[in-house]
Amino acid sequence: MSSKLVILHIDGVSANTLRKALDDGDMPHLRRLMETEGYELHRYRCGLPSTTPFAQAGIIYGDNSEIPSFRWWDRERGVLVQFGASSTFKKVADKYFGGCKPLTRDGACIAACYPGEAADDFGIAYQDRSYGRQPKSRSAAKVLAPYLANPIHLGDWVWQTAAVFSRTAKDYFVARAEGRHPAAPYVAMDLGEEIFVHHLTRYAVIKAMHEGYSPIYAGFYAFDETAHAFGPTDPSALRVLKHVDHTIAKVAGARKGRYELLILSDHGHIETIPFRASSGKAFGAVLAGLLPGYHVKEAHGDEYGSAEKEAIGHLTATMSGGAAHVYFTDEARRMSHRELTARFPQLSDTLAKLPQVAMLMLRDGEQDVFVTARGEVRGQAIKPFLASYDEPDVLYEQLARLNSFHSAGDVVVLSAFVDGKQVNFENQAGGHGSIGGEQLHPFVLARKEWGLDLSRVRGAHELHPVLVDLRDRLASRPRPG
Ligand SMILES: [Zn+2]
Question: Regarding the domain delimited by 4-63+100-269+438-475, which CATH topology (the fold level of the hierarchy) does it fall under?
Answer without folding.
Answer: Alkaline Phosphatase, subunit A (3.40.720)
